[in-house]
Amino acid sequence: MDKQDSIYVAGHRGLVGSAILRKLEREGYRNLIYRSSSELDLRDSRQTMAFFQEHSIDYVFLAAAKVGGIAANNEYPADFIRDNLMIQTNVIEAAYRTNVKKLLFLGSTCIYPKLAPQPLKEEYLLTGELEPTNEPYAIAKIAGIKMCQSYNRQYGTRFISAMPTNMYGPNDNFNLHTSHVLPALIRKFHEAKENRLPSVEVWGTGNPRREFLHSDDLAEACLFLMNHYEDSEIVNIGVGEDISIRELAEKIRDIVGYDGDIVFNPSIPDGTPRKLVDVAKINRLGWKAKIGLDNGLRSVYDAFRQDDLVKQ
Ligand code: GFB
């Protein structure tokens, strides 16, 4: 990408898109294009095509998606499969029709089989059954990967796909009903401390293991891939280390400074037992994550506390 190329960040208000936009701005890219979902509904094929025809776009970061934690995925499966299929189909097709030079599609590690060997290598895609709580979302993401690969094969486009592990960072969703575990626990422990509650409920058994990547690291990896990766095969983005949900809860409890108890609720599903990605491929290409979980968590908690003070 040259600094004057026109670059469209789809989903710029979300955790991932906002981090990509910040990184592009910091790196001096000057011709950045973005629209909120109220200005441009990417589920609408006509609007999407008209937008691409109006702006001559060189590069696309496709970070627009309907996302959520285990409960949201489980409760709104139709929304997750429909919205994601529509958004990605419309953007990929419009990018092809308007001769976009290169597009980066962002998937998720839930595309891998529920019980795949760990760490998850890229070649494990489509080798086994998916995790039922997020199968519709995963199927949409797998369709996105296959669309990019098929367009490259049939039309000679340059559409690449990256699979980030679980992420956290600024602009995350802290709604306890729809969020992922990390922001949910920050909020739960913070509110329990403020309200002097005796305990905090953590869903599931606490045994599942997850890997957490800061969105600033992810953004750096996305720019790196856009500038250096040309293959149709998927690439994992992760840190290469995971921790149990119990350990995560204890870490967040310590950072927040809460001294009550942690109570697990095993009636809520655990989801995939473990999701640790193999990062050998992206490391070999020349990129490595830099932000450790302790530092990342502290910065996210500081920002959360600032927001909380502003709201009061
Ligand atoms: O982050 P999370 O919602 O999504 O949950 P997944 C991770 C683990 O944390 C699960 C447990 O075992 C949850 O049961 N957990 C404990 C909690 N307490 C909480 C809580 O208060 N809130 C939440 N949300 N979880 C998602 C997929 O799976 O990961 C998406 O559903 C996507 O499709 C995303 O792939 C990255 O890691 O299980």
What does this protein look like?
- The protein has 312 residues and is an alpha/beta fold.
- The protein has a domain at 7-171 and 211-240 and 276-291: NAD(P)-binding Rossmann-like Domain (Rossmann fold, 3-Layer(aba) Sandwich), CATH 3.40.50.
- It is built from ten helices and 13 strands.
- The chain has helices at residues 15-26, 45-54, 70-75, 77-97, 135-155, 181-194, 215-228, 245-256, 280-285, 293-311; strands at 6-10, 31-33, 59-62, 102-106, 159-164, 167-168, 199-203, 209-210, 213-214, 235-237, 243-244, 261-265, 274-275.
- Strands 2-1-3-4-5-10 form a six-stranded parallel beta sheet, with helices on both faces. Strands 11-8-13 form a three-stranded mixed beta sheet.
- Helix 5 links the parallel strand 4 (102-106) and strand 5.
- Helix 1 packs across helix 7 (215-228) and helix 6 (181-194) runs parallel beside helix 8.
- Residues 69-71, 73, 108, 110, 133-134, 137, 166, 179-181, 184-185, 202-204, 208, 210, 245, 268, 270-272 line the site of guanosine-5'-diphosphate-beta-L-fucopyranose.
- Guanosine-5'-diphosphate-beta-L-fucopyranose is lined by residues 69-71, 73, 108, 110, 133-134, 137, 166, 179-181, 184-185, 202-204, 208, 210, 245, 268, 270-272.
